[in-house]
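Action item from last meeting closed. Structure (128 res):
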């Protein structure tokens, strides 16, 4: 496979389209987690945290959403977990209960969060 000279090109953003079964509920869910949600038009919103973002779409296919994983590498997993645990997401959004951080075999501490559409989030941190 031939390598591309990456100095000749640039990418200013790389944003996945995340499905939403109920668009309004998903927007509230991400806002509660601490993300900034900005409408981009009917059925599309930019969801961001600092420089990082994804596009939330008012589109849902169960098989896709159930196999969709977002991975956020964070600098203070304990603070994230304190926030996540305080939100009572399972009862407020009828989602699977978040799972507390644990050290995974691949070397990261990971907390697991499920969004209202079934998308799995890994909030992960490198062990100190």
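Sequence:
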């Amino acid at each position: 496979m031939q390598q591309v000279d990456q100095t000749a090109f640039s990418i200013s953003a790389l944003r996945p389209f995340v499905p939403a079964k109920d668009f309004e509920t998903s927007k509230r869910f991400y806002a509660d987690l601490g993300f900034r949600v900005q409408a981009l038009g009917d059925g599309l919103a930019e969801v961001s945290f600092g420089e990082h973002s994804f596009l939330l779409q008012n589109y849902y296919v169960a098989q896709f959403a159930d196999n969709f994983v977002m991975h956020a590498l964070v600098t203070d997993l304990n603070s994230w977990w304190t926030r996540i645990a305080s939100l009572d997401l399972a009862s407020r959004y009828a989602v699977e209960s978040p799972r507390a951080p644990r050290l995974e075999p691949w070397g990261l501490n990971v907390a697991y969060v499920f969004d209202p559409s079934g998308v799995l989030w890994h909030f992960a941190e490198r062990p100190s």
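Note appended to the action item: The first strand starts at residue 17 and ends at 19.
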